[in-house]
Input
Amino acid sequence: MNLLARFRKTKRTAILSAALLGLVIPTNALLAATPAAAAVSCSGWGWSNPDAGDGYMAKSGTHLKAGPYAACADLTTTVPVGTHLYYHCYVGNDYGNTWTHVRIAGTSIEGWTSDDNLDDNGATIHC
Output
């Protein structure tokens, strides 16, 4: 992954950004900006397949999801560490996390996984 792509995918939080800028943000302002768990949308996330990348599942206990949130329904049983995945594209969710839409190599099984679960931070092309 080139430096520009890695930079674009770097997860930024309000706390880190504020620290880098030397700003102070009240804690209650951060809490107010965090979407409620019930407000996440697990459907309607469009994706395409512009990324020719691939990688491997790096964390155990991971499932492919119906949308780019941990609260979304599991589409698979646990995907074992080391499973080869083809990357389609990535999105950022309302929490500032990036998720990649993937397909398990050799199957037609596909879904979303957090880039934290992947060995190389996932797709480099936005959906």
About this structure: The beta strands are 54-56, 84-92, 98-104, 110-114. The radius of gyration is 15 Å.
